[in-house]
Amino acid sequence: MSTAEQAELRGAEAASVEGAGRTDLVPIFIMGKRYNVPSTLTIQKAFEFAGYQLIRGCGCRGGICGACATVYRMPGSAKIHVGLACQTIVKPNMYLAMVPFFPANRAVYDLEELKPDAQTLLKYYPELAKCMGCNTCTKSCPMDIPVMEYISAALRGEIEKAADLSFPCVMCGICASRCPAELGQYNIGIMTRRITGRHVKPRAEHLQDMIQRIESGRYEEPLKKLMTADMETLRKLYVEREMEPHTADEMWEPEIKQFL
Amino acid sequence: MGYTPDLMELIKKVDKTRPARVERKKAGIEFQALTLDERRDRLEKYHPDFRPDALRELRVGPSKGYALAQEFADAFESRSRVDPDSIHLEEVHYETDVLVIGGGGAGTAAALIAQELGAKVIIATKLRHGDANTMMAEGGMQAATKGWKDSPYYHYLDVMGGGHFENDPELVKTMVTEAPKAIGWLEQLGCMFNKRPDGKLFTLHGAGTCRKRMHYAGDMTGAEIMRTLRDETRNRIKDIGVLEFSPAVELLMDDNGMCSGAVLYNLETEEYFLVKAKAVVMATGGSGRLHVQKFMTTNHYGATGDGLVMGYRLGVGVRFLHATQYHPTGAVFPEQAEGLLITEKVRGAGANLVNIDGEQFVFEREPRDIESASIIRECTKVGKGVPVPGQPGKFGVWLDSPMIDLLEGEGTVEREFPAKYILFKRYEIDISKVPMLIYPTLHYQNGGLAYESDGSTVVPGFYAAGEVGGGVHGANRLMGNSLLDITVFGRLAGESAGKFARERGDVGKLSVDHVRKYHKELEEAGIDTDRVSPMVLPDYGNPEVRKRQWTTTYVGTLR
Fold it and tell me: For chain B, which has fewer Cβ within 10 Å, the N-terminal or C-terminal residue?
């Protein structure tokens, strides 16, 4: 039986208990089971309306943590849709399941020893070479990340490009669940980002300078004075502190340099 | 999707007043800001913290007599989720050097540092590792890293001013002097902070800063920090075990008066089990999901203040919990974006706040608490709030984002606020063309458990780090200091706990007498209640469904 037929069949049960007296409800099929829920809800809130207390599949409720990856189909179509349950509004007759966890290979590594090249990635994730370029990962990413592109970049040794392209990844795992070559794309993605942050981008020299200044103890006395100052003095110092203008150049310098 | 026809009709009023407002702005004419006296008056009359029934004095525990929000008082004046007599203390399931409770930024930083000191570590966390407010922090992380214009001295002044000069000086000093080291540590771990080609870190202003010292990683700084720390933990799998979906519900002591582990609850199998540890780091984060005064929240699903309750029962006092941070601009429409933070940067770029008639009612760059109080006033006393569709009795005001493109040029909104632009686009709302409907939202727990700058508390072996602790932010935290707080104090608590565990001998006989004692105190104070805490998870269930769960028993919000 097609899902369209199933939906129609179950549509006959419209007057179910939870629908009593309400006209704003639409049927959805949570893991194949019908529930009538308000048409304005997100999938996440629809689960809760249906009576679930979410344990798995619920995190930030704001679209950034990747806990609530969801796959669904509409009747009469073979297409698999994806979305984050906290961000996706229910559609009448959708068939859905959350994928709160999907096992993916994750290598254990020492970041200090990694090199920004394809050999390094292939050593830890040899399956990378199996990518057949089908683009299913990209099509299934709820964050609209060009997943296949960053995987290709990684394979070519363009580590920084892979890092930048994969940056918005919420690591929900849908790409891995759909990959015929069995890659764990998001784990490869974070490896490229950490290699980039650690080994590709130049270190911030001014940061090390400041750490040395602090360790030399040059701020101990000025800070001690602030910590023991009476309220009036402290307020005065606060109100009178020199403001770096919003439009100031990066190398702007204040007039008072005594406490730098 | 998109706005309802009713709202589209109301938006016409905003469109009508917009050209004149843009012209005034261009001419440098701003809405009159409040004087200091008017500010105080507005806060006292309209800020939720100042409502007459907002606070209530605690009747039990180490901070007895201290007045704080009813929801916190309820959580403290509750019985343990588990009867102390039914805890099998001889049946220990895990033994470790350091137990970290909470798998957010502070807890994970603590675990990594404790491990570097040779400790075996267990992280027990309620949901998945990394499910935490840290993940949701967008703006950035403050640190004085540019010696030619900034120093910890100025960072210190800013933090104190933001907190109304009530902050704990020692904690503030620690935070600002450790800040550059914390950024350096994250850089070493491969965090992708935005940098110039020469490696110089990009920095921005935040509200209340005198120097540009907000470091950031795109508009998802917290997520970048969290996933990096979590990834590193996974590389140290031999020494750091992670127990997910296993919130702690009570702490364990031993007969030498030292904290010695915790009682965990497996949310999936509904069984309790014990972890014996030589030191415990409490890092459970905040409490937005307690919905103080029924406010919506920007917080994570698991932010229910569990650590406050456990620590308090153990004898650790709380401070600055009377001050709750409401962010003025949380989305109220569409419903699925409810509580979602609309960054301060939108107002900074010039967007007015206007009421149902399209009238401006407050200067848009007042401090957070003043701005929130003014919005609440407009929706209550003045009665010019915009009704939120489908939610009778709820109101909001317009945040007029289309002004930004008119002021700064077409495409500015899309370029400067890509995440929000795309998010609203998904709901078929183009925020460069139509305003956003907003209302203040519960954002941050300014206070918490009392702790020292090394993370220690009055109970030996028990440490606190991050949002669960109170003192460093005083009565009001500044933007960019929470990611700093969790990194600095997470590291310090991890170091102290690691050392304590190394030097501590064997754990003595385990005990939960502190829970019995607390129950007795409740009874003596005449508090006869069936409330239980910690809450663990909020209840967003359908009451109609609950009525038909004929054979189900609920303990608090959990069945």
Answer: N
